[in-house]
Write a structure and sequence with these properties.
By secondary structure, the protein is an all-alpha fold. Helix content is 79%, strand content 0%. The protein is globular, with a radius of gyration of 21 Å.
Length: 402
């Protein structure tokens, strides 16, 4: 059985293969979100959803599962080893895919998506730990740079892939593709990736330790302040993900062209992430983050007035220009806020990363779901959400800096 190969029986992966495998495992999250976007309305119709906003929960429940899973997999992998934790994550993800694939009602679909999110958190979190086991310092930074390139590419191509599968075979083919990808990468991982955490380095799993770490973060003004800031920022982006399909395909009637507009906006975030790697060499992360939030606030206030003057349906080119500029600032924030939240947690970095990631995802889930559920056939709820959450992020960041 592939799951029971001993470490001595598995040859060490080469650098290129290790990068490819790690990137494929981590890409499960992005693919599971962005590939679904063109299919939301059709899934809703097939499952008998009356309120079209309810279809957004297909995205939100995935994030809920992922937020919960981030708390589990880090400590579990420290206790039982990296491979067992990833096997558990894949098992849950595959079960969720099957459940969604055969779903005939929205509750069954949402249960499947919850399991997918909880499962996908395993490869996403533990893959970083495997990279850390094998590399450190500048070598780890180099590996993660290659891996994170996937997060720039996947959101650009995933909606187009989803649109293609939707056109050729229907929305169930999207979940079938998730299932096939998960099985292929699981077999690849089991056959080729040795266990990287030695027995003598493992630590007991303890819910008490997780709770203790959470309490330390809550008492750490900088950590909790930047965690809240990160959650609010991702909250307005999740609000966009929830309502993007309705805005572009229904309000602006773009139909099958929606993935191309989505890809264009994803380029802005990707470009900002690459630019931020150079910016932080010359400017402090706090300064870059404040400037980005102020820019988003000002842009959102001005565009809200423009949209209001057009009865919530401004010209498409103005919306694209606004979102492109706003997402550039968002890409800067993605690159800095997590690092700022972790800056004072060096001694508890492993569990701290899981706690920070989970708390910020829960915050973003609440904020993004509210924005999405407020969709009323105009862009007003989305723009108002960007404005209010960017102001709240500035306030949280100012509190963290005191």
């Amino acid at each position: 059985m592939i799951c029971f190969l001993k470490k001595s029986e598995i040859p060490e992966l080469g650098f290129a293969e290790f990068i490819s495998l790690t990137a494929m495992m981590m890409s499960l999250v992005a693919l599971s979100i962005d590939t679904m976007l063109p299919a939301l309305s059709e899934i809703g119709r097939d499952l008998g959803v009356v309120d079209t906003n309810s279809s957004q929960l297909i995205i939100s429940l995935f994030f809920l599962g992922m937020a919960s899973g981030q708390l589990l997999y880090g400590p579990l992998s420290d206790n039982s080893g990296r491979k067992k934790a990833i096997y558990l994550g894949y098992g849950l993800f595959i079960t969720g895919c099957v459940l969604s694939l055969i779903a005939t009602t929205l509750p069954v679909m949402l249960a499947g998506r919850l399991l997918q999110g909880f499962g996908a958190a395993g490869p996403r979190i533990v893959s970083v730990a495997i990279v850390r086991d094998r590399y450190e310092g500048s070598a780890m930074a180099r590996v993660m740079s290659f891996v994170m390139t996937v997060f720039i590419i996947v959101p650009i191509i995933a909606p187009t892939l989803g649109q293609g599968m939707l056109f050729l075979a229907g929305w169930r083919a999207i979940f079938a593709s998730f299932l096939i990808l998960a099985l292929l990468t699981l077999v690849w991982f089991a056959l080729r990736q040795p266990e990287t955490l030695l027995e003598q380095k493992r630590v007991p799993f303890s819910f008490k330790q997780i709770i203790s770490t959470m309490m330390m973060i809550f008492r750490n003004r900088s950590a909790i302040g930047y965690t809240v800031t990160s959650g609010l920022v991702f909250g307005f982006f999740l609000g966009y993900l929830n309502s993007a399909q309705q805005i572009f395909q229904e309000l602006y009637a773009l139909g099958a062209a929606f993935p191309y507009y989505f890809a264009f906006l994803a380029l802005s975030i990707g470009g900002a992430s690459l630019s931020n790697a150079r910016f932080v060499l010359r400017h402090a992360m706090q300064l870059l983050s404040k400037r980005a939030l102020i820019s988003i606030s000002v842009l959102s206030a001005g565009y809200f007035l423009l949209a209001l003057g057009n009865h919530g349906h401004p010209p498409l080119w103005t919306l694209m220009a606004y979102l492109f500029a706003t997402f550039f600032g968002t890409g800067i924030l993605f690159g800095n806020l997590n690092a700022l939240a972790m800056e004072s947690l060096g001694k508890i970095a492993g569990i701290g990363a899981g706690v920070v990631g989970s708390l910020s995802t829960f915050i973003s889930l609440i904020a993004g779901t509210i924005i999405g559920q407020c969709y009323n056939g105009t862009v007003m709820p989305l723009i108002a959400g960007f404005f209010m959450l960017s102001l709240a992020s500035l306030a949280a960041m100012r509190w963290a800096d005191k």
